[in-house]
Every structure is written in C-alpha cells, then in structure tokens.
Amino acid sequence: MINYIGLFIAVVFIALVVRLLLKDFFPQAVLLIAGIGMLLIAGFFKKGLPLAEVNSGFIFLDIFEYIKESFSKTNAGVGLMIMTIGGFVAYMDKIGASEALVRVALKPLAVLKKYPNLASIAVIPIGQLIFICIPSAAGFGLLLMASVFPILVNLGVSRIAAVSIITGCTSFCIGPASVITASAVQIAQIETVPYFINLQIPIAIILNLVLMVTYFFVNKYYDEKDKLHPTEVKVKPKPKEVAPGIYALLPVLPLILLLTFSGVFAIFPIKLTIETTTAMLLSLFAGLLFELIRTKNLKAVFASFKVFLDGMGDIFKSVVTLIIVAEIFANGLIALGFMDGLITISQSAGLGAKGIGILMTLMIFFAAILMGSGNAAFFAFGPLIPSVAKQFGVSTTSILLPMNLSASMGRTISPIAGVLIATAEVAGVPVMQVVKRNLIPVVTVLLTLLIYHFGLCF
C-alpha cells in the first residue's frame, strides 16, 4: 500500500513542479524544494531517510548533509567535465573558431544553390555534425541564423521554413561535448566514446534521414498552403577580422582526440585513453597557441583565458546546479516509491521492460516540451533508470538512450525553449509558427525512434 501512497504523493509533486515551471519559476529552486519535500515525507513514512551515505538519525539534518554531498560529488566528477565543456565552447566562440567551423562546413551547400528545398534539408546533416562540436542549442541556433539563414532565404526558402530547419538541427543532443551525453554516461557508468559510436551514431543516422524527408514535405506543404514566398535578406558585412579557416579544426579537436585515444581504432601499439575533460583542456591550450601565433600578443592571449573561466562559471550556475538539484528531486521520487509503484503498475498491465522504456521516453519528451529544456527533463528523470533496468534485467542504456534523444526532440517543439524564441525573434516570425513546422517532423522521428529501438533493437 505504501508504494501506491508514495506514487500518488510523487505524482502530486510532479504536477506541482510542472505548474511552477510553466509559471516561469526558477527551475533549480523548484526542483530542490520539491526534492527536499519528498525526502522529508519519505523519511516520515519510513522512519528514516533511505540514503546510505548519511544517517545521523535526524532526518532534516541528514537531508542537508546529503545536499552537501551531492554538490561535492557532482562537482568533482561530471560537473567538472560539463564546466570544461562550457568553458571550451565559450572560448571557441570568442576566438571565432565556431564561426570558422560553420563557414567551412557549409561550403557544400553551394552545389545546391539552384534547388532551394534540397539545400534547406541538406543543412540538417551538416548542422548535426556541427552541433556535435558546438552543443549549445541556443548559441548554435543563433550562429546558424547569422550564417545559414540569409543563404537559405536568398536561395528561395521561406523565412519560417529556414528557421524550422535551423531549429531542427538541434533535435539530437549527441556526442562527447553534449551535457546530456555526459550525464547519461555517468548514470550508466560507461565510457563516453563507445556510447557515442556504438549507440548514438547508428540511431542518429536513421533519425536524421527521417527528419530530412519529413521537413522537405512539411515545409513544402505549409509554404504552398500559406502562400509564403521568400524575402531577400541582406547579409551583414563580415567583421574585418575573421578567424582563418584552420580555426575550424579547433571545435572538432576534442572529438578527434577522444576517438584517437579511445582504443576504438587501435592506432597505437599500447592502449592510450583520455577523458572528455582532458580532451577539452588539451584543445583549449591548442586554441591559446593558435591565438598566440595569429595575434602575436602574449598579454591579450593570457587575458582571453578569462573567457574560458567565465564560461565554466556560466555553465556551473545554469547546468551543473540543475544536475545537482534534479538528482535530489529524482532521489525524492525514488524515496517515495515512485518508480516501484510505476513498475508494479506496468507489470500488472503486462507492459514489461519495453513498456516502461516507452513510458519513460514519452515522459521525458513531454517534460522537455513543458520545461523548454531537454537538459532539465533528462536530469530530473535520468537517475531513476538504473534501478528500473536492474529490476527488469535489461541494460541501463537500453532505456537511457531513447530518453537521451527524446529530451532534445521535445525541446525542439517547445514554444518556451530558448533556441526557438531566439531564432524566431531574429527572423521576425511567430514562435508558434515555427513550432507548427517542427511538430510533424519531430513527432514522426519520435515514433520512428520508438518503433526502431523498442520494436527492432530492444
């Protein structure tokens, strides 16, 4: 009976959290207070806090001791990794390496200048490759708005179609530089590169192909229905100082290092491996060296290091803190027996591991739409999965992988997502029109994910 009472209380807390987030309450505070509330209630029911790390006998004190331990543990592990990713991305943007990567990667589009609809969907696989190296959805979207948007519109693509394609490029958060990937591998206790190569890439290829086909027909249909025509966009003159093309190598360098030293390709006679944090730091110093050679100004290059540190600080307050409080929220759900109750109901309904996997994938998807953040949705529910997978006798990644992908997909059709608001504002189009264009492609891809993963590969 306690499982069902706990399940009911957990559902009430989830509904309350969703309501507050929709009212634009600060997510970290909402998740933290909700987590503390659930842990207190769980402690009251079970006469003790179900957290092995701390057990003083005084529940209220134990909870705050647990919060301290969460900050300490996360900052020393996945938190440091994510902060170095954030700092590296900020530095790449500062020195113009991100812009150089986009500039070089988009050169193949020139061959499709007579075929605007094909040129628009060709942006998707190119954009996905760039997004692996520049994993900030809003920052990446704005970068494409400055570079790709004018090209597409001047080729003959409508403004709304161009924005929908650009935001569609952020549908899949994959790769070692993604904070969702960093969280997923930490939850599953596996290495980043095998997760990326063996699990993310194969399914991402299929989903990107489906995304391209659906965007082609959806945008064509809506353009004809709404009688939309392209309007010329004046391309802003490039700044006098543009980073050289060789700088395009820098954002890709962490990925190259991780693949080279992962042991996957057996390049060296002995196995040499490096972690994501190390790859980011090595690539950062390569960027500093490039800047020193280009500018020949040692003082300015040393001063630019502050951009990396500021980037680390920004990602700490926006992402790492969210991971910590989301873990506390998830532990509150676990303590109340939310997952036990959900599993019991699923087993009673005959759903099994596939059923619970589909349920969690859909839950993450809708949570991302409501929160406007794939990160927040994944961080809140991802930590629940190891215990679920263990009870059903399946691998953690078999449930975690589709959740990883559906989190970023949900953000792509959320009208409160930063990437949609920012890109729509730049293009001068209504956000809801972009959501309408994204809805069918994203839902089609979600259904493809569920059928392919749970129907064919599970």
Helix content: over 70%
Largest sheet: none
* Shape estimate: globular
Distinct helical segment count? 20
The number of E-state strands comes to 0
Radius of gyration: 23 Å
Approximately how much beta-strand content do the residues carry?
A: under 5%
Low-confidence stretches: none
Average residue-wise pLDDT: 86
Number of domains: 1
Q: Which secondary-structure class do the elements indicate?
A: mainly alpha
Order of helices and strands: HHHHHHHHHHHHHHHHHHHH
Distance between the termini: 32 Å
Could you explain how this protein is built, in words?
The chain is mainly alpha-helical and 458 residues long. The chain has one domain (2-457). 76% of the residues lie in helices and 0% in strands. It has helices spanning 2-22, 27-46, 59-76, 78-95, 97-105, 116-133, 137-155, 159-168, 179-188, 192-225, 249-260, 276-295, 298-335, 338-348, 352-371, 374-381, 385-392, 396-412, 418-427, 431-457. The longest helix is centred in the last third of the chain and has 38 residues, at 298-335. It is globular, with a radius of gyration of 23 Å.
Topology, please?
Elements: H1 2-22, H2 27-46, H3 59-76, H4 78-95, H5 97-105, H6 116-133, H7 137-155, H8 159-168, H9 179-188, H10 192-225, H11 249-260, H12 276-295, H13 298-335, H14 338-348, H15 352-371, H16 374-381, H17 385-392, H18 396-412, H19 418-427, H20 431-457
Helix pairs in contact: 1-2, 1-14, 2-13, 3-13, 4-9, 4-12, 4-13, 6-7, 6-8, 6-10, 7-8, 7-19, 8-10, 8-19, 8-20, 9-18, 10-20, 11-12, 12-13, 13-16, 15-16, 15-18, 16-18, 17-18, 18-20
